[in-house]
Structures
1.
Amino acid sequence: TGRMSGTAGLMRPGTGMSNYSGTGGDPPVPFLPGNSFADPNKDNFRKSHAFDYRSGTPVEMDVPAKMDTTIPSRPQSTQQRFRQSGGQDTEFVPAFAGLDGKVLRFDAFTAEQVPENLTEPFRVRIFTILYHLVDDSVQINEHKQQNSGHAQGVFMKRHRVPRKDPKPGEEFVSLFDFADTKTVQLYSRDFHLTACNDFTQQFYEVNGMSLQFETHIPEDKYLTMRLATASRSGRNTATPGPGDESMEMGGFRPDSQASMSSMTSVGGAKRDMREKFLKYANKVLRFYGQWDDRGSMFGQKLEYVINYFLQDDKVEVLEVKKNNSGRDPFPKLVKKQRIPRSFRGVPSVGSKESDFEDQYINDQDLLVGTTIEVFGRDMYLYDCDDFTREYYRQHYGIEQSGNLLQKDALVEFPSMPLPPYNGFGSEHDSLASYFNLIPKPRRYDAGKQATLDAIIFRWKAKFDMDKMTAPNPDDHKRRFVVSYFMGDGSVSIYEPPIQNSGFMGGKFLERQRVVKHNSPEGFGDWMTDQDLLIDLPGTVWINGYPFVLLETDKFTLRYVNKGNIDSFVNVDTIHNKLHNKFTGTKREILNVFRMLDEEKNGVVTLDDLVNVIRKFNFELDEDEMIALMARWDQAKEGVIYYERFVDTVF
């Protein structure tokens, strides 16, 4: 004090005032090197500037050229409140040291809208809001809920949260935004406060502020529905506590009839598997089951085979594969293992199979006409094999029932009638536009097309004048060739031109598929080869015209008679044809055969017979030639006796 008072009288020359006005009653100190000091309460060391960047965008700041060091950088921040709360007599403590580790904790929830779900108007999410006093930063953690569908944990990392409508000096969310309100808005999301810890409550009470909380949390219908579904299926979705019996029992619940003492005694004893293995090795009880899941969406009634292995009491469930069922072949529904009577979840780690010995399915539980549970699926046992029946008859005196499977009633779905022909394109085009939105071309069977494309049936035909509605008097002169193509089932009609008949001739019907006459089915009832392969002469209707089929070609006859030449070729007729054409040439024909008979044994080969017939220009087609050789070579030796042939024919 004396030193200060000693220097108080020093003044600058020529002036009667001090260069530094002290605070209170302290004397002035000259503004000289060594006599100045830094303000320890100063926390703003920024340079004044008129330009700045906000979110990467240059902006112009309305800042005076020289900032007043007495104005804080953040008005009424937590650090400044902490400094102002200390008196002049207390020891100075920096804000980063005094507020380090001091965190305000709030419990909150949000109600998010679910616009596309009528049964669930909103989804409730639970959060913990942490407000760090040292730097006014906020962190949000979301509570973990099973099957919530959200990535939980850290919802928002720790940082200073900007306000929605910032004001000069109030750009970020502070601790005052949590006072006297039940809702805090952070990034346009409303957080409803429900509770806080004791430290947060005391902090606000000491600073003269009050807190308000929501008294009711709305019900989350989605989680309520999941809990109800889990309770019905017997699964425990909640996290088990230390005293939960389900954890001690490995996830299984003991039956109501089995006491804890009986389970301990059974669990303590070890099964002797050697005796069962020697007695029942490779012996299996086979049951036939059915699982009806039609009550659920896209569910079906499926059949399974349940095999019970007597040597180790294990069960396997095999799916029965059916043709054209539309399901992928899945060999096993359950592989060989022990199956609990009522599945209550996966056993806990470290549990043993022997701890739940009386809870697994055994052979006494399998009876025809009963239902067993296979991991949540109700299997109805409707039949078993003969070995299984004999086993139950000898060991338990039980007579298994017969096949109890009841066939489902046949459901006949109504079929829509085919629409009439619309006149555009072919009739197949109309059908294609009826069955498909975008008409598809008719698919051809490549194998059938390659095999049957060369098979063409032909008939000579004329109009049936008696059945025509408006006949032309000259129509009885017209002749037609009707062709049927086996490759695609099409029909074509050609009219040979006749001079001076008054008709042009040519194509009478373009090659196409023809619908049967007066067909009740309409489209798709096409004419086939059986409609044309009738007894001749016969009448057929083609596109409203009656045609009388007069005769057919040899190829069609051979196809109809399946290659039996004798059924459509008469050898006696061939003999008469040869006799009538070559009367009086018997000696000449006999001399030709003798010239060909080099060995003079009275026989010639079939090739020699063909050459003689061709030499004398006998008008025989291939079928008649084959029939003639078959008649005179019945022994299949390849030779004929020509003298007998000549005497018989000529």
2.
Amino acid sequence: GERWHEGSERKRMRGGGREIRADDSMSKILRPAATLFLLLSSLSQAGTAVPRNAREVVVNSASFASDETDKPLDFSLPEAARSMTGEQLYFIGEKLLLEGRASEAVAFLSKAASLMPRDAFTHSNLAISLHQLGRSKQAIPHFKMAASTQLDSLYFANLGQALWSVGEIEEAIRVLETTMRLDENQFGSLALLLQLEHYTASILSSWNRNYARARRALHVVLGKAEVSGNPADTVWTPSQILLLDVDEEYVLKLCRIHTNRNLQPSLHRFRYVRPSGKKRLRVGYLSYSFGLGVRNGLMYHVFGSHNRSQVEIFGFAIRPHDDNADDAEKARVEKNVEHFVDISRIEVSDIPALINSNNVHVLVDICGLHANGTMLYKSLLAFKPSAVQVAYMAFAATTGASYIDHLVTDKITSPPDYRHHYSESFIYMPNSYHVNSHKQRFKTNVFGEKELVGRRSKEGLPNSSIIYCSYNQFFKIDKHILRAWIDILRRDEKSVLVLVKFLFHKQAERNLRAALRANGINATRLILAEKLKNQEHILRSQLMHLHLDTRLQSGHTTTVDALWSGIPVLVWPARSMVSRAAAGIVHGAGLSWMIARNGQDYVEAAMVLSRSKAARMLVDAARSSSSLFNLDKWVKDWERSLKLAADSQAGGSVRHIIAHNS
């Protein structure tokens, strides 16, 4: 999302800004227009300085702004303003912008820009007004004019964000790099620059420079934010900081600051009903929907697999059904969840009381406090509507929230020695914390060697080569994993690497091919495959020899998909939870020998596993015998864990829960 805030007075006035005085003569000019007169009279005290370039864009957006150019807006000037000077028009336009009246500001600033075509302040604020109205394409020429007229890092920062919002990624990166050369303290631009470099797999060339900057910046911004309590001061969002190879203590600090904004000044004093041995445990799930879109369908079969004699299920749906759900799917969803509650049409402030009125013993959040979505709904957890609140799966790190009691994980993904980096107590699942219903959803067709040869040819894959693949998105590629992949391709001279065409794949493909060429590797050995639906994707995965997991952010569902397809998965965990999830998954499948200890081990293991028929046989056997694909067992362990969590809270303490194998 976007965050706009005022810069300091010193920064606003720098760059030759001129003071404008709202004197009596200006009031006389505006006398025919009463509303404009009132607007100016609030600033007409003698000697009041009106700052130029009063606002800057500090945006860490993960999605494009919509450019609603098909919706006409009235940018016409009032009659009384048509004889004004450029300075007068600018003064009113800036005031309107500061008051949040961007559409009115555009009319004044557009005219001011035509009268003062080389005035950087005017073009900058006009561009900001247009950007606020979702018209970034129209804003970009004015951002460019401001930046070309006055060499100021703020103008380049704004231009870089606007270019990003319309999908001009490569130009945005170039502009943001210029921003950092002008001012290394433009931390918002640095955060966005790193994000874009990850998305386009261009991180290798700038890793050392920009990551050193990021680590220095984190010390500064987190210190400031801990004092102010303002999440905007952290610059990085919780999702963005997971892209940085930093200690977990930074993640915890940042997440704590961001969840503090959800704390209400006067929380409801809810009464909680304690679980009784004679009654069913009442478990509520908070989710955007409860269809196959829930965490890619991973939780879909969990809701219907609960032991209804022991557990009573409530589903609080922020969106009643997935957009593409048909009537049959909707009926299955509502049958899966014993009490299906559509909260989409209820006032957000009333939802905590609604949840509490259902006497829910344990509330499980599968939206994710820091995942993409509506912060308004996430804030309801701060009211603590349930005695026990649990975070599960959506965000692979600590929430930092004092009102979340437990985080669901396992001992490989979150080792006991790392507990001090989490604000929650753990619920340790006995195998992998990562649930799946692949056995219920997908066929188990296993291709014979002859069929594999035919299908590889059909897919345009070489039959005479080892085929490595990685189905993780480009932003998960860091310099360490890319160098390891280059070493693998260099040593395995006839091999190829298959990646998937995710967002920004054209830019990523260009950057990755350039990295291969720079290391003496034929760039055609990189193959970009089309993204397929789940069942087709799993069938195609059988054509590969080895899935290479990423390090900084490991695969989650992609790891399960690869194992279910029957191919080995080589993982290389770092320190963080998000980097260790794949290790927890392969450990849960009884395949811990696929976990590499370091980069050298990763490369050496790739040479062996990619050619090992025994490894493939063991992975194939795990599909039927391992706990990872045993949904019924996972649900039994899960229910026992939730019961232990509810009982420990009723006993007056919140402690780590360790569920043993059922």
3.
Amino acid sequence: LVRADTCAARGGLPARPPAAAMELSTYKANARAYKAQVAARAAGVALAVVEVEVPAGGPEEAADEASPANKLPALKTAEGKVITVSNDAARHVCAQAPGCALYDAADAEGAAAIDEWCEFFAAKLDAPLRAWKLALRGRGECSEDDAKAAEEAFDAHLATLETRLAARTFLAADGDEFTLADVVGYCTLMELFALVYDKARQGKYGAVTRWFKTTRAHPDVKAVCGEGRLAKKAAKVGGAAKAPGGGGGGGAKPNKPKKDPKPAQKKKQPKKEGNQDGLTVTKEEDFGEWFSELVTKAEFLDYGPTGLRVSGCYILRPWAYEIWEAIRDFLDAEFKKRDVKNAYFPIFVTEKALNAEEDHVEGFAAEVAWVTRSGKSELDQPLAVRPTSETIMYPCYANWVRSHRDLPLKLNQWNNVVRWEFKHPTPFIRSREFLWQEGHTAYATEAEADVEALAYLELYRRTYEELCAVPVIKGVKSEKEKFAGAKYTTTVEGYIPFVGRGIQGATSHCLGQNFSKMFGIEFEDEKTKEKCYAWQNSFGLTTRTIGVMLMMHSDNKGAVLPPRVAPTQVVVIPIPFKDHQREQLVAKADEIAAQLKAAGVRVTVDARDNYTPGWKYNFYELKGVPLRLELGPKDMDKESVMTVRRDTGAKVPIAWKDLSGVPAMLETMQQEMLDSARRMMEASKVVVTKWEDFVPALDQKKFCMTPWCEDPESEEEVKVRSAAESDGGAAKTLCIPYDQPPMPEGTKCFITGKPAKRWVLWGRSY
């Protein structure tokens, strides 16, 4: 970035670089000009910046004779055109670098989303609040009524941003990519934030504060805006200065000059104890940021090196993968008890095969990733990366099934799939690539298919409740929410009380004969000798289980893992006192670990001498190890260890001779974690029989059991009305529970007033 008017004038600086193709005229510290400057830096485009001297009246009154258009900032293009609308100037700069990551006009959908937010800032937070902002700076007049209206509008627009950013890092695209929308937003807000974004607002609009600080720290933003009056004021967000003249009333006076402060005395910093790499955000403050910190700092996953990341794709670290292995091993053994065989099918599917089942492909169309090139050559036909494997496997089933003797055919594969989600990716919960198992079975009769669909659903319930200690509700999806192309879809639904959102845990689909007719999966009936179509099921469970488990159990210290899936169930920590008895303590810790390992406990000893015991305690609490055994000199004297439970923090001494009771202690923890989670879930469920009580219950982070007529149009009505009546988002059906409470005669549907058929669970969901 070239400051053409000052480089040559400053002593000791390099000679003036070659002239840039574009020239930006601006006064110093002009936030509007920063937009084009950041764009130039991000796009790698040469831009000469000419600073115009500001008259005594201030930049707002400067006619700026030196400006090409009598207005600042002004961008003079290579063709001689002058652009004075700052957002347009930034877009033009980006256009000089095709494929610019900030803004690519060739990507019509992405550009439109960015434009929408750029217009939002221009129309809502720039020009309309200008008079109020000038008054706050003591450079203009603003009546009290106008100031109050402006401040109310400011808060209303911040609320809009808070909703948008609640589960996103950035504004546009999928929320995971830094774009021109964020640059425009930051530059628009930086002065207002410096003036009125006090601590109260920072707490109220936590997601906005996080976004502002994240954007401010972006290298291109920091390089352009990192110095000067505006940047120094905006840098106080996170500890913002109080607005001049109070909270934003009219006619604010200029700030009085401050006396030189006394030299600050250095405060003696307290000695840090424990692990300083722990969580910095609580679940209550910002659930999304807390979860993001949890999964990375506790070493469940990694996003990869900056610059090499693919949005929505994550590295599963060993700590997470071992949990997935525990889940996989349990299910794999149970599948084999039901004669399900493992197989593997290709990751690619032809366009023709994918389009064979219209309803099915329509349900996945927006999520399919396509391979269109090999090296520099275009493929003869594009290949889809599997979003699921029905269209890959079922043509093979058609070749393999000829007679009733070939049925049932039960295959499962453990693999990865890609679904190019356009919603905000969330680690483990919603990602573009994930690991799962997908089972695909074929039967001679409908009755067999129905029985088996529920059998696999029960295995999923057991996975969540018996392994992950997460309570779930078994049910069937509504017609609107069922799997594309299925006869019906069964599900286990979880609920995260801390955010008031349901989450689909796993599904088992009865496909009927829809797919067998499409792909020609026929067999000769044993009795009639007629050709019949097979009845089919499909069922799947993903690494989402890990995310649901972490959200449900973990706390502000870190993960809390159920013992049955924890990679390490027990950690033994010897605590020598000034190296007193160190060798004896470590030897005894190893002996205890060997005894527990022989009893089937997954145990480790941490005898490292370069970390303090306090650091180790915090580290293993962050990782979620269920049980800690502390062994110090006094414990040696008493021939005991101190046990510390991760879930409750309870400390209980146990004699060495009673260590055989540790496995039972772990089982008690497992059950109590499930019981605790079930109590939280049940406390979040309410019965609602009339619409007036529905949205208020959602806003209290509840999910609702209601009588419903099962009219598909009413389901859409609930979604639309719940979104319109609350900022919390739309509600949808989670499932129609198999465990149905009694339905009193004459019960009406809570939304239509028609006779109700069944009870249904509604809620906001991931």
